[in-house]
Design goal:
Layout: E1 4-7, E2 10-13, E3 28-31, E4 35-40, E5 45-51, E6 57-59, E7 68-70, E8 73-75, E9 78-84, E10 87-94, E11 100-109, E12 112-121, E13 130-132, E14 139-142, E15 149-153, E16 164-168, E17 180-182, E18 184-188, E19 193-198, E20 216-222, E21 227-233, E22 236-237, E23 253-259, H1 270-277, E24 295-297, H2 310-323, E25 329-333, H3 357-370, E26 373-379, E27 383-384, E28 403-406, E29 410-413, H4 416-422, H5 424-435, E30 441-444, H6 452-463, E31 467-470, E32 480-483, H7 484-487, H8 502-508, H9 539-557, E33 561-565, E34 568-571, E35 575-578, E36 585-588, E37 591-595, E38 598-603, E39 610-614, E40 619-624, E41 634-641, E42 644-652, E43 658-663, E44 669-672, E45 704-707, E46 712-713, E47 724-726, E48 732-738, E49 746-755, E50 762-768, E51 774-778, E52 798-805, E53 813-819, E54 826-835, E55 846-848, E56 860-862, E57 874-878, E58 901-906, E59 911-916, E60 928-937, E61 943-947, E62 952-954, E63 958-969, E64 976-980, E65 991-1001
Parallel strand pairs: 24-25, 25-26, 26-30, 30-31, 31-32
Antiparallel strand pairs: 1-2, 2-9, 3-4, 4-5, 5-6, 7-8, 7-13, 9-10, 10-11, 11-12, 12-23, 13-22, 14-21, 15-16, 15-18, 17-20, 18-19, 19-23, 20-21, 27-29, 28-29, 33-34, 34-35, 35-36, 36-37, 37-38, 38-39, 39-44, 40-43, 41-42, 41-44, 45-48, 46-47, 47-54, 48-53, 49-52, 49-54, 50-51, 50-53, 55-65, ...
Keywords: Signal
Signal peptide: 1-24
Organism: Amycolatopsis samaneae
Length: 1003
């Protein structure tokens, strides 16, 4: 039998056999004003709980236990303990494991009881990796207690089914032969409920995965005269496999909270335990911002096209702020680095120069905060690309066999355990933090880590000040505040569309955007991307989702759930949501604020300084003003537009605080108690040298109009994109001074243009002060824009560019957009001026070495492989020898010819890949040209040089730089390009590299 010797407050227990039960006088009682907790001084074991006020009881573990599992082996330690006030401190010594010692404690404070390992003394020979206390049963209920029940939640992300299990504990409840695992656990009787929290994390893949989440252990045991349902912690990782001795995880802890009726419904059930759990749970960093951000956006850049440079994204952020009257925005930049999305991972600090570089990204982040927008970026630690300066074969799993995603380039899977333990990942994160210090969150894409690896990665990000978002809902469950697959209406499979658990959502609805969307009462986030991601659905659809779905969802997230009954949920703050009437209704203080799809929602949820109105059907509705607005005779109604609030009228308030609103369908409005003052100054074009370069203002006040002035306007197209429209007439020019140019430097100016074929010339001209004008023009928009990341995908809108030099001593220029006389309208949009450089002509008619491209592929545009708009597999490639060059790892061709950048087509789809336009490379009628360039091709017959005249010449296999030459006859629609002759393939070498393009006029 175990021998227990107690001298005053010190108890010493010798190792030995264990009796099934212990005498009551061997226990000690810890007290707080709310609880009496019976504890075993001979081993960290809670025996029972008594509520001080009601006398109601919960149990712990009535069985003697005395073993600790260290690194997979069970040991019986020698135990000494000392009771001090509200705690018992233990020392556990393991003579059979090299004398390792653990210090631990059990402490009571208020309604909380905590078990914690406070120190681990291990040795070089016996380093502690993992530990657990089998069958600890820190809190339990019994079948002979009225109302006894167990509620657990596992990770479940499918649209159907649930991760929840609710079990009444009776004599007839089946016993479980072994413990099982859960993510959350609550026990209750009819008088008390208890929840358990722990920092358990398995060192997977040896332990359960997140979908089985082993954080909590539970078991229903047959104790003879009763059934017992108990909860305790899963295993802890202290030092992970492969970690250095000094690289340890946080010390283990478990917390239990005991409560009575917490929601005032005069009953005790799992929901009271869930409310109490919020007192002890781990809160994700940044959770306080979740309920204030109804607006979700994904500006997308891909394949060197930089369709959404940081400066434009800032203007778009301002437009959305005006159109929503400053609602919080969650803005995820996909493709902020290198050549855009899924390129150069894991170079976190490698901000893409075509997108605007570090300077413009910082300007976006800092200015976006003024418009209530949080900015984050898409990163990865699952794959690495040879083009990345951070590419390191030492962190790859197997560069010979373990191939990753293959899109713009072939990637290789990262050994993210080694990457994290080596400190290299943290160093990259710190480098990025130093460059862009005020970024709000990091979005971790395609993360497959679990347990320890996820906890370590999340801790690194949180410690640097970042909130965490992720692609897959089940990852970073305790740290993530937003999941892509849960929110994107066009993304994610049916098997992974958000956490599907009433228990978890009850607890954390106010903290996370990780839920299955479409809950009939709580709703759910719905992202309708319109800035290039997966093609988008246009700005109007984005507004419909924001106001029709997301704002009501976020309104409810501003309060905590208190009671969830069939068809009715009661939240804090006097808020409830119900569909008992057959339609969804949200009420505040007894008055409806949403009925069906129409609403008048107070915002913010607590301050209630204004009220948002939306009515999908339009028409007249009546609403009661919030109590916080007091008595008043009138309020002010504004319609929201993409240029800000527009006053509609004063609304009378009757004696019952009611107002009547006549609204247009699917149109946002806001109600203020008094005039809020002017709209926020957007200052369109921050950091661009231009004012209103994308015509967001809806007027031409920033531009000078000459010629046929009445023909210039700025309407919005069907996708909600404002454009400069120059209608038919005698000719119109719209111009502006470009400021802030660097003396003696070279710049590229460009603009999107669309003009009907052969009817009218549309020109872009830049005249530097002290210099000569430079002009490019087109009179035919006949080539479809196949870049899916463009808002103009599917139209014939393409960019026109000019390169100009700023004379020494000068810093300004005049930029003019001109439509010559004619009838069809000409459209311009998204003017951009960026510092670049130029390829020396050296006597040639045209030359392009791809070293100074602002956006796109030099003179070439994506031709869509003869299909619909899509994301290409061609981009500008940078040299990162030896990994990007022929010979490394069996690679057949160089990604880059020479020392700079080259145009790379990687395993492209079959069809025309890219071609020139007359506005990018003009072959004049009646002239002949010699075209030459350097290329490498991995295989003969993959790609061909093609012309507008229908000629086609197949590239021969070339694993070293090879010169190609062809003759081209000029003409109105003469062009050159490259076609892929074979079907698209992946994880194989089917590449064409092109560089040093020159064109000479020969006749």
């Amino acid at each position: 039998m175990r021998r227990l010797a107690c001298l005053a407050a010190l108890c010493v227990v010798a190792a030995g056999g264990l009796a099934a039960t212990a005498a009551a006088d061997e226990y000690v009682t810890l007290r707080s004003p709310d609880l009496k907790v019976t504890v075993d001084p001979g081993f960290p074991r809670v025996v029972g709980y008594t509520d001080t006020h009601s006398g109601a009881k919960l149990y712990g573990n009535e069985d003697r236990i005395g073993q600790v599992v260290l690194d997979g082996t069970a040991y019986t330690p020698r135990v000494s303990s000392r009771r001090t006030g509200d705690r018992v401190d233990y020392r556990l010594t393991f003579p059979d494991y090299g004398g390792v010692e653990l210090d631990a404690s059990i402490r009571v404070k208020g309604r909380e009881v905590g078990f914690a390992v406070t120190k681990i003394r291990d040795t070089e020979r016996n380093p502690v990796g993992s530990l657990s206390i089998p069958d600890q049963n820190l809190v339990s209920v019994r079948s002979d207690q009225p109302g006894a029940a167990l509620a657990t939640a596992k990770m479940h992300t499918a649209k159907s089914g649930t991760g929840d299990t609710f079990t009444r504990i009776t004599r007839d409840t089946p016993a479980e032969a072994a413990p099982s695992s859960a993510m959350y656990g609550i026990v209750n009787t009819g008088q008390l409920a208890a929840s358990i929290e722990t920092n358990s994390a398995y060192d997977t893949p040896s332990g359960p995965t997140t979908k089985d989440n082993g954080r909590i252990r539970e078991q229903i045991a047959d104790k003879g005269g009763y059934k017992r349902a108990g909860l305790w912690s899963g295993d802890w990782t202290y030092r992970a496999k492969g970690a250095a001795r000094s690289d340890t995880e946080p010390l283990p802890y478990t917390r239990i909270v005991v409560t009575g009726d917490r929601n005032g419904d005069k009953t005790v059930d799992w929901q009271d335990g869930a409310i109490a759990f919020r007192d002890i749970m781990t809160n994700p960093k940044g959770w306080q911002q979740v309920a204030r951000r109804p607006v979700m956006r994904i500006p997308f850049n891909f394949a060197s096209n930089a369709e959404h440079p940081f400066t434009q994204t800032l203007d778009e952020t301002k437009r959305v702020a005006l159109n929503t009257d400053g609602l919080g925005q969650f803005v995820l930049l996909k493709g902020y680095g290198s050549e855009g999305h899924d390129s150069a991972h894991p170079d976190y600090a490698g901000v893409g120069k075509r997108q605007g570089g570090v300077k413009d990204l910082n300007a976006l982040v800092e200015n976006a905060h003024r418009y209530n927008a949080d900015i984050g970026v898409h990163i990865q630690d699952t794959e690495e690309y040879p083009v990345s300066p951070a590419f390191d074969p030492a962190i790859a799993k197997d560069v010979e066999k373990d191939l990753g995603w293959d899109w713009l380039d072939q990637s290789y899977h990262i050994d993210y355990r080694h990457d994290g333990q080596s400190g290299k990942r943290l160093a990259r994160l710190r480098e990025f933090k130093d460059k862009v210090p005020d970024l709000d969150f990091l979005y971790v894409d395609t993360w497959y880590g679990d347990g320890y690896t996820s906890e370590k990665f999340a801790r690194e990000m949180n410690d640097l000040g970042y909130d965490v978002a992720t692609e897959f809902t089940e990852k970073f469950e305790r740290q993530s505040v937003w999941s892509h697959w849960a929110n994107d209406v066009n993304y994610g499979g049916s098997g992974n569309k958000g956490i599907n658990s009433q228990i978890v959502r009850f607890i954390r609805n106010h903290q996370k955007d990780d839920w299955i969307a479409g809950d009939p009462l709580l709703g759910g986030g719905e992202l309708s991307a319109y800035e290039g991601w997966v093609g988008g659905a246009g700005y109007p659809a984005f507004l419909d989702r924001t106001f029709g779905t997301d704002l009501p969802t976020k309104y409810l997230q501003g309060f905590t759930i208190q009671k969830w009954a069939p068809h009715t949920i009661t939240l804090s703050g006097g808020v409830s949501v119900s569909d008992t009437s057959g339609t969804r209704q949200i009420a505040k203080d007894g008055h409806p604020v949403l009925t069906g799809g129409a609403y008048l929602l107070p915002w913010s949820q607590q301050e209630e300084t204004k009220l948002y109105h939306w009515n999908p059907a339009g028409g007249r509705t009546q609403w009661t003003l919030p109590k916080s607005w007091g008595a008043r005779r009138s309020v002010k109604l504004y319609q929201l537009t993409d240029t800000g609030r527009r006053f509609v009228k004063d609304l009378d308030v009757d004696a019952a605080r009611r107002i009547t609103i006549d609204a247009a369908a699917k149109t946002p409005y806001v109600v203020y108690p008094a005039d809020p003052g002017p709209n926020t100054d957007a200052n369109w074009g921050d950091n661009t040298g231009l004012k209103d370069p994308s015509f967001y203002s809806g007027n031409l006040d920033a531009w000078k109009i000459t010629g046929d002035k009445g023909k210039a306007s700025v309407p919005a197209n069907a996708a909600g994109q404002r454009q400069l429209r120059l209608d038919g007439g005698t000719g119109t020019t719209v111009s502006q001074r470009v400021t802030g140019l660097a003396s003696g430097k070279t710049y590229t100016a460009s603009v999107n243009v669309q003009v009907a074929p052969g009817q009218r010339k549309a020109s872009l001209t830049v005249t530097p002060d002290g210099g000569k004008p430079v002009t490019r023009w087109t009179d035919a928009s006949t080539v479809k824009n196949y870049v899916r990341a463009s808002e103009y995908a599917g139209t014939t809108t393409q960019r026109v560019k000019v390169v100009f030099d700023v004379p020494e001593g000068q810093s300004t220029a005049t930029l003019a957009l001109d439509a010559a006389a004619g009838n069809p309208p000409v459209f311009f949009d998204d003017v951009r001026v960026v510092q670049t450089g130029r390829t020396p002509l050296n006597g040639h008619y045209f030359a392009e070495d791809f070293e100074h491209v602002d956006t796109g592929w030099g003179p070439f545009v994506y031709a869509g492989n003869d299909g619909a708009p899509d994301d290409p597999r061609t981009h500008l490639a940078q040299k990162n020898a030896p990994y990007t060059q022929a010979g490394w790892n069996g690679k057949l061709v160089d990604d880059v010819i020479g020392d700079g950048e080259s145009l790379k087509s990687h395993e492209e789809n079959q069809g025309l890949v890219y071609r020139t336009l007359p506005q990018t490379l003009r072959f004049e009628p009646g002239h002949r040209y010699r075209v030459s360039f350097t290329y490498e091709a991995s295989k003969t017959g993959d790609y061909a040089f093609v012309t507008g005249a229908g000629t086609s010449t197949t590239f021969a296999e070339a694993h070293t730089p090879t010169t190609f030459t062809a003759t081209v006859e000029g003409g109105a629609d003469a062009w050159i390009g490259v076609a892929k002759l074979t079907p698209g393939t992946q994880n194989q070498d089917h590449d064409l590299i092109l560089d040093n393009l020159v064109v000479d006029e020969i006749g």
